[in-house]
Write a structure and sequence with these properties.
It is a single chain. The chain is rod-shaped, with a radius of gyration of 36 Å. 89% of the residues lie in helices and 0% in strands. The chain is built from two helices and no strands.
Length: 89
């Protein structure tokens, strides 16, 4: 006796349905992870940290520019005073 042939189209559609269910389950798990308390706490912690880091970078750049300008101005002033002193001498 020959074994019965199964309907391949039905098998494929059943497999697709299973795969679709698995994909939906994976999507739901990802969404649940994004809405979890752990993720919310981590993001709530890192947002102010990132703001403080950004503020520090901006402040550092402004302060370094100010120090460089003050150094250049005082050096120029010192050289000018030395030139005046040598003229007097």
């Amino acid at each position: 006796m020959k074994p019965r042939k199964k309907n391949k189209k039905k098998e494929i559609s059943v497999k697709r349905k299973r795969d679709d269910r698995k994909k939906d389950k994976v999507k739901r798990n990802r969404l649940n992870r994004l809405n979890s308390v752990k993720v919310k706490l981590i993001t709530a912690f890192f947002i102010p940290v990132l703001c403080i880091v950004l503020l520090g970078m901006v402040t550092y750049k402004k302060a370094s520019r100010g120090l460089i300008n003050n150094f250049e101005a005082s050096s120029f002033s010192t050289i000018r005073m030395m030139a005046d002193y040598f003229r007097v001498g």
